[in-house]
Amino acid sequence: MAAPEPRKHFPPPGEPGRLPFSSAVQAGNTLYLSGHIGVNLETSKVPTDAKEEIRLMLDSFQKTLANAGYSMEELVYVQVFCSDVALFGVFNEIYRTYFRGPLPARAFIGSGGLLFGARFEIQGIAVRG
To answer: What own/partner pairs with CB < 8 Å and gap ≥ 24 does 82-90 have?
Structure first.
């Protein structure tokens, strides 16, 4: 019986150990991405413009994938939390631009308030191969 492959953890940006979670964990050929929000890293704030927030969030998500050696095309499932579902169309307009091929399965969930006053949070699962 082969030994299980070790898990690889990818820390969140910033000071090591500051936040009590990993941005992603790879187990075998599967990458589990934790929730990402659209925060301006220079100001540590969510922008007032929803479109800018979406881009910051998706850029951060894409960077975490890249740091683990994955791409947006390897996503198989994405879950989006949104504090105002009236922003569904705005979100989709920008979300589409981050993909070249078939889109992953997705849930878009209306939520209550999100951390730091964010309007959106995204998490997902990517599979290599």
So the answer is: 82/108, 82/109, 82/110, 82/111, 82/119, 82/120, 83/110, 83/111, 83/112, 83/113, 83/114, 83/118, 83/119, 83/120, 84/110, 84/119, 85/110, 87/50, 87/119, 87/120, 90/50, 90/51, 90/54
Q: What is the CA radius of gyration of the chain?
A: 15
At CA 42, angle to CA 114 and CA 15, rounded to 5?
Answer: 80
Cα 25 from Cα 41, distance rounded (Å):
22
Helix (H, G, I), strand (E, B) or coil at 89: helix
Domains of the chain: 20-127 (3.30.1330.40)
pTM for this one? 0.92
Question: Which positions ≥6 away from 81 have C-beta within 8 Å?
Answer: 35, 109, 111, 114, 120, 121, 122
Euclidean distance between CA atoms 94 and 115, whole angstroms: 21
Q: What band does 79 get if pLDDT is binned at 50, 70 and 90?
A: very high
